[in-house]
């Protein structure tokens, strides 16, 4: 009210309010850095799984850690966000200065979080700990999470993609069993799309279900076998309109509309519900399948450029912004040490030699048989290539997604769309 | 300005009058302080701040805040996504404003009579207004799926409905329909109130003169309700520029950029791509659009609106 | 098609006789058809709660072929709907209370009291009226973060209670007060009542109409809040119900259609019931938005 008691002037009022706001900011800036509290602290872990079984194991490990460090840690909270919103929820918290202490990181965000300093280097803690046993890690699996000798996250889930097949739908459409095709060397995308089209035509159900355009990097499971790459290995050149990409997406479009081999966007056919014949995914999907239809889990088919196994990783790291980075690093070390990694292996294949065994993975994927585990997970895992990553991924991810939506329209001008896409994302490369 | 109002000439008890005026002024200032501070802190100050932010390359994730002058605006107006977004926003706003105004007027005219059960229909058309936007959008997401209820219904007549929300040619239209059915009830009751204030003698006189219902509407009713028409136009325009929930829930601006209206585009650039500077530049553009449209309609109102006074 | 036809005693031509009968019938038919897109979605939403997931797509039946209560159990367990409902309810009530108190006072002051630069100050408030929330959210996000108030309800309540929507409420009250006859207040003033008492004890009791308008408008707006919690809140139990509705997924991330529709119905039904019982008040209140009194 004092603003107006003298000779009130709008301009002065504005200045005063701006001053008040500034003062408020300054005050909060001072209070933002309190002295490190003496007592035990709370750690917060952001993740995208709301699975109760996962959380039970995480809490069990966390409770053991708290019991070992009663003076330092009072509680560890696991905050789950839906996968669709996860990256955005995490960066909003980071940019708001409300970062969690640890977080799961998607494969596609690895490079940018490391380059932009979102994750803290935890190599000192991990390498020094004999229980963590860095020599047990499968060579190469930490590459995406390392930079200049530092380790920024542990890929607690490292596994190749495989192809789920609905055997009932194939049988209903009079198609071959994929195992026979694999044996005869005919397990190719040509054959798969032919079978998918047949399923769609004779049963009215869907063919190949492609998860969603939002996580388009996972299309690498197909385009890699076409010899297509979205950008050069050094990340300096975008290759969205390369001849291979054009060939690949033309093929996608044709299989959606010239025949109905690939489920179109907006169609609600779903592999888990038994209404789609094929779906590329990880071993975890097997957990949500019941006995309502017969299915198999086989390696990825070969494309024009041969068969390529593709690996997906999800990692857990310490946020650079954490208020307790040392403690968080210590918890990361504990959470993923050799002993606890065995517990995590109940759900996620670990990048550890000691845990990449039939026994361990069978325990994780009880619905998969030995042939599926050995042939689709362990063996392909040896040669699997990682998904493409880029330091500016989130800046162009939605642009790519919208272009792919246009490609998945009838009569789409695939080449033109890809040229436009290339032109509009080039600024983020080089 | 009223600052001299208290100083009536040569009043016998001038001093006490002046004291009273001072007290009134103090009271007035106290009573308006809340909204005035609110307008300054949550209206004027944010505008000043995004003006400043828009001149910077600001990526909170990388901890970067560098002055870049007008670069963000140059980048923005050179970007095909932004140009598309402006065009989509224009089409969306025009589509919503035209359909909402016409349908609201039509419904109000139909309901403006004494008939059994008319209140029930009024309630029916108005009900979506009180329903949470998220709920309304979610339901239509189900209904408009390619094998959802709408297409299943159309299939009964041998019509193969499009994939409404995933087709570049139908998505914007679908969103406009969803917005129309959600909000038209509000405009309808505004028109209904206005129609009921039109003197029935005038209309009866028109009817006796043999004027057709449409002619009566054009010559008598419409001129009398122009203030409401203007109000509806302004409120609907501003509401349409504010659109967010159905876009974020149903299309994410897609397919392609078919529904990428500027309010959603801002959110995506700022909070998904973490480019706050560029997002602020979009905010400035959005603000200028709102400002120009409101001022434009305001001045149009002065010239066009029939005034009863 | 005119309604007056019904009450008019002597139609001039015989055609009018058929119109007298057919007119209302055709009208009712038109009204029913027009009501479909407004009412069907709401009925479908409620009834689909009781459908198995397979019946939700690819079927045009409104009523479930096979009734199931599967979804009901999941509504409150998959996502903390009750706390979210409470959050929406109490933030909306607080925002509405603040808005009514401050806008009524300011509306009265702008309509009746004389103080320096009253018009300029009113124009300042008015000019923020149409500011979209998207424009101001980046700075407000920044300030909230600086104040350490992210993931609290403060950034939901304060900016909405004191932001552009308050300006709209001020405008509604001011228009109403301008339309009130001054005589009553002048009489009270002669009795020696001070201005604030006049406002509080004489004017406000007469202001049921604009108060109802502002209460309904503000409450619906606040209850509809979406982008603010999306940006400011991270804990599921602090979210508002609108965002909560988008969080119905099973443990593998697959959508739980019927639980989502059930939760949506539960969100909508209370407001809808209140509306049906107080229909006239709602409609009349919202038909006053922006008009004189």
Main sheet attributes: strand count, strand direction, barrel closure of chain B:
2 strands, antiparallel
Q: Can you tell me the number of structural domains of chain B?
A: 2
CATH topology of the largest domain in chain A: D-Maltodextrin-Binding Protein, domain 2
Level-2 CATH architecture of the largest domain in chain B: Orthogonal Bundle
**Main beta sheet of chain A:** 6 strands, mixed
Number of helical segments with 4 or more residues of chain B:
12
How many helices of chain A? The count is 17
Number of strands of chain A: 12
Q: Give the low-confidence spans of chain A.
A: 1-35
Oligomer: heterotrimer
| Structural class by sheet pairing and helices of chain B | mainly alpha
Q: Spatial order of the strands in the main sheet of chain B?
A: 1-2
> Helices and strands of chain B, in N-to-C order?
HEEHHHHHHHHHHH
What does the radius of gyration of chain A come to? Answer: 25 Å
Give the number of DSSP strands of chain B.
2
- On the 0-100 scale, what is the average pLDDT of chain A? 87
Distance between the termini of chain A: 55 Å
Domain unit count of chain A? 2
Describe the secondary structure blueprint for this structure.
The complex is a heterotrimer of chains A (430), B (309) and C (293).
Chain A: H1 2-5, H2 10-31, E1 41-47, H3 52-68, E2 73-80, H4 86-95, E3 102-106, H5 110-115, H6 123-128, E4 146-147, E5 150-151, E6 154-160, E7 162-166, H7 167-172, H8 178-183, H9 189-203, E8 206-209, H10 220-223, H11 243-257, E9 276-281, E10 295-298, E11 310-318, H12 325-335, H13 338-344, H14 358-364, H15 370-383, E12 385-386, H16 393-407, H17 414-425
Parallel strand pairs in A: 1-2, 1-3, 8-9, 11-12
Antiparallel strand pairs in A: 3-11, 4-5, 6-11, 7-9, 7-10
Chain B: H1 14-53, E1 56-59, E2 64-67, H2 71-78, H3 80-111, H4 118-130, H5 133-143, H6 149-155, H7 171-196, H8 200-208, H9 213-241, H10 245-251, H11 262-272, H12 276-304
Helix pairs in contact in B: 1-12, 2-12, 3-7, 3-9, 4-7, 5-10, 7-9, 7-10, 8-9, 9-12, 11-12
Chain C: H1 4-7, H2 15-48, H3 70-75, H4 81-112, H5 118-127, H6 133-146, H7 154-162, H8 164-179, H9 183-190, H10 195-203, H11 208-223, H12 227-232, H13 241-244, H14 257-277, H15 279-286
Helix pairs in contact in C: 2-14, 4-7, 4-8, 4-11, 8-11, 9-10, 11-15
């Amino acid at each position: 009210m004092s603003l107006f008691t003298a000779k009130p002037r709008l301009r002065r009022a504005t200045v005063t309010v701006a001053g008040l706001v500034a003062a408020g900011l300054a005050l909060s800036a001072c209070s933002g850095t309190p002295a490190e509290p003496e007592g035990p602290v709370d750690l917060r872990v952001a993740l995208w799984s709301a699975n109760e079984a996962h959380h039970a194991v995480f809490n069990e490990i966390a409770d053991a850690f708290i019991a070992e460090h009663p003076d330092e840690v009072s509680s560890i909270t696991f905050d789950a966000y839906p996968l669709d919103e996860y990256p955005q929820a995490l960066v909003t918290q980071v940019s708001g200065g409300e970062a969690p202490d640890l977080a799961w990181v998607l494969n596609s965000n690895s490079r940018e979080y490391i380059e932009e300093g979102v994750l803290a280097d935890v190599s000192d803690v991990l390498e020094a700990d004999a229980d963590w046993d860095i020599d047990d890690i499968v060579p190469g699996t930490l590459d995406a999470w390392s930079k200049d000798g530092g380790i920024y996250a542990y890929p607690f889930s490292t596994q190749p993609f495989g192809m789920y097949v609905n055997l009932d739908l194939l049988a209903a459409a009079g198609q071959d069993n994929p195992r026979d095709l694999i044996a005869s060397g005919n397990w190719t995308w040509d054959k798969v799309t032919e079978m998918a089209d047949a399923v769609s035509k004779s049963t009215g159900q869907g063919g190949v279900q492609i998860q969603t355009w939002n996580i388009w990097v996972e299309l690498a499971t197909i385009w890699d076998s076409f010899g297509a790459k979205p950008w050069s290995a050094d990340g300096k050149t975008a290759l969205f309109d390369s001849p291979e990409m054009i060939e690949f997406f033309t093929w996608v479009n044709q299989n959606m509309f010239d025949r109905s081999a690939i489920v179109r966007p907006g169609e609600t056919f779903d592999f888990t519900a038994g209404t789609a014949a094929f779906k590329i995914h990880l071993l975890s999907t097997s957990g949500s399948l019941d006995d309502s239809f017969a299915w198999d889990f086989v390696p990825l088919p070969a494309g024009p450029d041969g068969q390529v196994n593709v690996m997906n990783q999800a990692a857990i790291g310490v946020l650079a912004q954490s208020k307790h980075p040392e403690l968080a690093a210590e918890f990361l070390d504990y959470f993923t040490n050799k002993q606890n990694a065995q517990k995590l292996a109940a759900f996620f294949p670990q990048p550890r030699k000691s845990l990449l065994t039939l026994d361990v993975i069978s325990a994780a994927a009880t619905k998969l048989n030995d042939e599926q585990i050995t042939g689709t997970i362990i063996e392909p895992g040896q040669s699997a290539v990682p998904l493409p990553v880029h330091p500016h991924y989130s800046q162009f991810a939605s642009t790519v997604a919208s272009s792919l939506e246009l490609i998945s329209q009838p009569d789409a001008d695939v080449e033109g769309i890809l040229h436009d896409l290339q032109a509009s994302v080039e600024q983020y490369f080089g | 300005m009223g600052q001299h109002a208290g100083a009536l000439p040569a009043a016998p008890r001038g001093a006490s009058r002046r004291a009273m005026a001072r007290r009134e002024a103090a009271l007035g200032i106290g009573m308006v302080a809340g909204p005035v501070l609110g307008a300054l802190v949550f209206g004027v100050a944010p505008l000043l701040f995004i003006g400043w932010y828009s001149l910077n390359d600001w990526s909170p994730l990388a901890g970067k805040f560098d002055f870049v002058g007008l670069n963000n605006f140059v980048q923005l107006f050179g970007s095909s996504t932004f140009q598309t977004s402006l065009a989509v926003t224009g089409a969306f706003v025009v589509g919503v404003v035209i359909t909402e105004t016409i349908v609201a007027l039509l419904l109000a005219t139909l309901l403006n009579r004494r008939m059994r059960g008319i209140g029930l229909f009024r309630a029916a058309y108005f009900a979506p207004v009180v329903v949470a936007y998220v709920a309304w959008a979610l339901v239509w997401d189900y209904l408009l799926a390619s094998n959802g209820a709408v297409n299943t219904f159309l299939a009964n007549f041998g019509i193969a409905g499009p994939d409404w929300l995933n087709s570049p040619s139908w998505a914007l239209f679908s969103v406009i329909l969803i917005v129309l059915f959600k909000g038209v009830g509000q405009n309808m009751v505004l028109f209904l109130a206005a129609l009921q204030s039109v003197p029935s003698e005038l209309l009866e006189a028109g009817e006796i003169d043999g004027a057709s219902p449409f002619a009566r509407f054009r010559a008598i009713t419409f001129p009398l309700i122009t203030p409401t028409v203007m109000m509806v136009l302004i409120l609907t325009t501003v509401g349409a520029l504010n659109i967010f929930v159905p876009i974020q829930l149903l299309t994410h601006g897609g397919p392609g950029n078919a529904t990428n209206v500027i309010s959603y585009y801002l959110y995506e650039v700022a909070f998904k791509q973490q480019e706050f500077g560029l997002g602020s530049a979009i905010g400035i553009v959005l603000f200028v659009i709102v400002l120009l449209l409101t001022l434009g309609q305001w001045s149009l109102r002065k010239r066009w609106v029939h005034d009863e006074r | 098609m005119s309604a007056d036809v019904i009450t008019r005693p002597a139609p001039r031509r015989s055609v009018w006789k058929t119109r007298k009968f057919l007119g209302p019938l055709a009208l009712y038919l038109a009204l029913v058809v027009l009501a479909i897109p407004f009412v069907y979605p709401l009925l479908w939403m409620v009834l689909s709660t009781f459908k198995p997931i397979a019946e939700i797509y690819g079927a045009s039946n409104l009523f479930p072929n096979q009734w199931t209560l599967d979804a009901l159990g999941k509504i409150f367990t998959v996502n903390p709907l009750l706390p979210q409902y409470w959050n929406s309810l109490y933030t909306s009530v607080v925002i509405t209370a603040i808005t009514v108190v401050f806008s009524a006072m300011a509306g009265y002051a702008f309509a009746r009291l004389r103080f320096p630069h009253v018009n300029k100050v009113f124009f300042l408030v008015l000019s923020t009226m149409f500011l979209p929330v998207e424009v101001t959210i980046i700075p407000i996000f920044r300030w909230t973060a600086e104040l350490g108030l992210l993931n609290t309800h403060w950034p939901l309540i304060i900016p909405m209670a004191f932001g552009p929507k308050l300006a709209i409420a001020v405008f509604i009250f001011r228009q109403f007060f301008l339309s009130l006859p001054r005589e009553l207040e002048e009489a009270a003033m002669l009795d020696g009542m001070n201005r604030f008492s006049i406002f509080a004890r004489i004017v406000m009791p007469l202001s049921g109409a604009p108060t109802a308008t502002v209460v309904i408008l503000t409450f619906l707006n606040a209850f509809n809040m979406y982008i603010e919690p999306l940006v400011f809140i991270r804990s599921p139990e602090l979210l508002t119900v609108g965002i909560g509705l988008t969080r119905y997924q099973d443990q593998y991330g697959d959508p739980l259609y019927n639980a989502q529709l059930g939760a949506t119905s539960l969100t909508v039904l209370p407001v809808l019931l209140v509306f049906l019982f107080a229909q006239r008040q709602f409609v009349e209140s919202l038909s006053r938005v922006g008009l004189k009194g």
